[in-house]
Write a structure and sequence with these properties.
By secondary structure, the chain is mainly beta. The protein has a single domain, classed as Beta Barrel (Porin). It is built from four helices and 16 strands. A 16-stranded antiparallel beta barrel has the order 1-2-3-4-5-6-7-8-9-10-11-12-13-14-15-16. The longest helix has 19 residues. The chain starts with a helix and ends with a strand.
């Protein structure tokens, strides 16, 4: 742990030095290098747990995760960017990232390891084609060169990256390294986006910016098996995403509305098919035995609005086909989340932030029957589900800007009916997050 804190302090020192020298590579530079490191420790004390299953959240535990990422960019020509993100990961989420559909840490992957390991999480090419309109200044940050672009443009991204890099973004709830931690707050819980166990996929995305509107389309590989470590190749199993965004201003304050639709095509199981086969054979419920090629779809809305110079609000609501198993994200068929972020200018800490969000996640009747029969989902499965209820979560955090490039965050989450089980919880989840970057 001491080594990780030292690394984050070093990254913060690098950020301070870069700031003193007019931060980072100059506009027009063909090379850019940024870095970040994030350490999160989460703990949950005792709560009601009358029985446990293979994928239950356990009481009285603490777990930690760590990641350090390099963002290395090359700009061979105007409008063309090539980015690589090698990353070192280590650690485990609570109960090995199991037990809660709206999992408490989006810094915890579905693959936990005690020893640090290296992966290339992103490797992509982005092409920006200016189409005119007002000039916009772009800051130089990870995976983005400093420079200018026009308001009207086409952006094409090809390679390995996250669906969430392009779709379902939100200014106040989308980055677990700097704002909320909960999975179903940083993304719409019902958005079953294509991803390997670390959250990335191979694909292509196109964005067309025209005035106040943006249309986004994308195609991505699903994992070879649900919640798998290995991605499909050649789009044998795939996802198509479409998103329409409208930007606006209310009382002179910026806002945006987005509507996102996804369509997954691959080998999935209907929940009732898996339950019926188990009942007929007397064997445990196993969706792998009833998977066949079919389509699963979902839709969600995503809103954000600045209310004052220091306060911003957001909301998400979505629904997906609850008759068919989720594939790559988590066990949520319907969701609604609301919240906000408040900056600390009023108490003399302009760079500090307070966040508060409430989310309710639900499942279909077929999904409930599957879990009640002992079925296991992407993240949840108590072995039975006698008293089902909506999973309700409240998250709040205080992010302290300790120094240039160094943030310390205290986070608390209240999780009611974890895994949709009224017999379990409620669980209180406490977290400390340390983040450094340049």
């Amino acid at each position: 742990m001491i080594e990780r804190i030292a690394l984050m302090l070093a990254l913060g020192a690098a950020a301070s030095a870069a700031s003193a020298q007019d931060a980072g590579p100059a506009e027009g530079s063909p090379i850019a290098v940024h870095g970040q490191a994030t350490f999160v420790v989460q703990a949950t004390p005792g709560f009601a747990s009358p029985y446990t299953g293979p994928q239950s959240l356990a009481p009285d535990q603490a777990r930690e995760t760590f990641d350090a990422t390099a963002f290395v960019g090359l700009r061979p020509a105007a409008g063309t960017e090539i980015w690589a993100n090698p990353e070192i990961d280590q650690g485990f989420g609570l109960s090995n990232t199991l037990g809660v559909a709206g999992f408490p840490s989006a810094e915890a992957y579905k693959v936990g390891k005690s020893a640090p390991y290296l992966r290339l999480q992103r490797l992509f090419v982005r092409e920006t084609i200016d189409l005119g309109g007002a000039a916009e200044t772009v800051a130089g940050v990870g995976d983005q060169f400093a420079g200018t672009r026009t308001a009207n443009r086409i952006v094409l991204t090809v390679g390995k990256f996250g669906v969430g890099d392009v779709f379902d973004t939100n200014s106040y709830a989308h980055d677990p390294r700097s704002d909320f931690l909960n999975w179903s707050i940083v993304d719409a819980g019902s958005f079953d986006y294509a991803a390997d166990a670390w959250g990335y996929s191979y694909g292509v995305a196109g964005e067309w910016y025209a005035g106040a509107w943006t249309l986004r389309l994308g195609g991505f590989n699903l994992s070879r098996v649900p919640n798998g470590e290995t991605l499909e190749t050649g789009f044998g199993q795939y996802q198509v995403d479409a998103e329409l965004e409208r930007r606006f201003a209310i009382a002179g304050r910026a806002g945006a509305a987005r509507l996102t639709v996804f369509r997954n095509r691959g080998r999935f199981s209907r929940f009732d098919d898996a339950v019926a086969l188990a009942a007929a054979t007397g064997q445990p419920v196993d969706p792998a035995l009833t998977r066949r090629r079919m389509t699963r779809m979902g839709v969600h809305a995503n809103l954000e609005q600045a209310v004052t110079g220091t306060l911003g609000l957001f909301a998400r609501a979505g629904v997906a086909d609850g008759a068919i198993e989720p594939y790559d994200f988590t066990d949520i068929d319907r969701t609604i989340a609301v919240g906000g972020q408040w900056r600390g200018k009023g108490w003399g800490r302009a760079a500090d932030r307070i966040g508060l969000a409430i989310v309710a996640n639900g499942i279909s009747d077929a999904h409930r029957r599957y879990l009640a029969a002992g079925g296991l989902g992407v993240l949840i499965g108590d072995g039975r589900l006698v008293h089902a209820g909506a999973e309700g979560i409240v998250e709040t955090y205080y992010d302290l800007a300790a120094a240039k490039g160094i943030d310390v965050t205290l986070d608390y989450q209240f999780v009611d009916h974890p895994g949709y089980n009224r017999d379990r919880g409620p669980a209180n989840v406490f977290a400390l997050r340390l983040h450094g970057g340049f």
